[in-house]
Amino acid sequence: MQTSYIAEYPAYHPEAAIIEYLHPLLLNKKITIILGTWCSDCQRELPRFLKVIDHAGFPYDQLTIISVDQEKSPGEEMKEVPNFTRIPVFILTNTDGSELGRITEIPEISLEHDLLALIKK
């Protein structure tokens, strides 16, 4: 995972206009990421997603990252995150825990665009 992070984070260039727009909208949100370090989609999308939220000034105390094991079924840590079958999953919630939406596996347009679409929904 470290090698992909080193390659993907600096190589990804999120759209600046969307990042600027996201900044105030993310301040009262929480994000949960479910990933597996062995998964190639996770290795590509996690560093990109972290760059998006870094540039948008997302507060990391409102971020939860859960890593699942390829060989085991999800355990107790997954009780609060039902209904996922593919990874990575980026789950956006309000501070009260109500889910606004998810980006699953790969974004439809781009991570920043899809994140904005979830907020505006």
Write the layout of secondary structure elements.
Elements lengths: L1 H10 L4 H11 L2 E7 L4 H16 L7 E5 L21 E6 L4 E6 L6 H10 L1
Parallel strand pairs: 1-2
Antiparallel strand pairs: 1-3, 3-4
Helix pairs in contact: 1-3, 2-4
Protein name: Thioredoxin
InterPro entries: Thioredoxin-like_sf
Organism: Pedobacter antarcticus 4BY
Question: What are the low-pLDDT stretches, counting only 5+ consecutive residues below 50?
Answer: none
What's the helix-strand series? HHEHEEEH
**Helix coverage percent:** 25-40%
Amount of beta strand: 15-25%
CATH architecture: 3-Layer(aba) Sandwich
Rounded mean pLDDT score: 89
Estimated radius of gyration? 14 Å
E-strand count: 4
Q: Largest sheet, described in full? A: 4 strands, mixed
In angstroms, what separates the terminal alpha carbons? Answer: 32 Å
What is the CATH class? Alpha Beta
CATH superfamily: Glutaredoxin
SS-derived structural category: alpha+beta
List the domain count as a whole number: 1
* Order of strands, widest sheet: 2-1-3-4
